[in-house]
Specification:
The protein is an alpha/beta fold. Helix content is about 55%, strand content about 10%.
């Protein structure tokens, strides 16, 4: 990052801190929430209880990163927005199967969505890894089903799908899970920028702790 870009980001964070004032997030959680606001310019994410953190979410993510986990995304847009330098420096793999031709064919044959098939295909990748969902509620529902079936057990599920149909409900279902750490939000808002900003914040937090 250039000095000018760093200065702009620093000033943006100062504006966010100033406009939000007091909040209910701890230091690490706020670093994540603030980056979501920075990516979306949506201060609603700072509202009380708007972004929900499982009590072991950050700790579990740090353990997974330390173990050089795979990060699975639901769409290419989330993958594209992830910090490539952080991924390289930390030796992390990524996986996104939504655009694979075999996934599209299987979805047609089975009558299921590509998102569902892609998540099921990524079961081994997400086991002990981090799942980042910013677009498809069906992908989040599929991950929840896979966890309940014992097919996979991610270290963290970031579930921030956006939309009017099933998005709020899928996030409510994720928030009920006790055995798999999660980060999610309440309501219709979300999307790829919010999801990628959460994982980028997590990577940067981990790197800062190592320095």
């Amino acid at each position: 990052m250039s000095n000018r870009a760093f200065d702009i980001e620093k000033k943006s964070f100062e504006i966010i801190d100033s406009e939000i004032g007091s909040h209910d997030y701890n230091e690490l959680q706020w670093a994540i929430v603030r980056r979501v606001i920075h990516a979306t310019a949506d201060f609603d994410f700072a509202g009380k209880g708007k972004i929900l953190f499982h009590e072991r979410a950050i700790e579990s993510a740090f353990d997974a990163i330390r173990n050089r986990c795979t990060i699975v995304t639901d769409v290419d847009m989330v993958l594209a927005a992830m910090n490539k330098k952080s991924l390289t420096d930390l030796g992390l793999r990524t996986a996104c199967y939504i655009s694979d031709s075999g996934i599209a064919e299987e979805a047609r044959r089975s009558g299921r969505t590509r998102s569902e098939v892609a998540m099921r295909h990524a079961a081994k990748d997400m086991d002990g890894g981090i799942v980042v969902i910013g677009n498809a509620p069906t992908a989040l529902y599929e991950v929840i089903s896979m966890v309940r079936e014992g097919v996979t057990k991610p270290a963290l599920v970031v579930g921030i799908p956006v939309g009017f149909v099933s998005a709020p409900e899928s996030k409510e279902e994720l928030a009920k899970m006790d055995d798999v750490p999660f980060i999610t939000n309440v309501g219709r808002k979300g999307g790829s920028p919010a999801a990628s900003s959460i994982i980028n914040a997590m990577l940067l937090l981990y790197q800062s702790k190592q320095q």
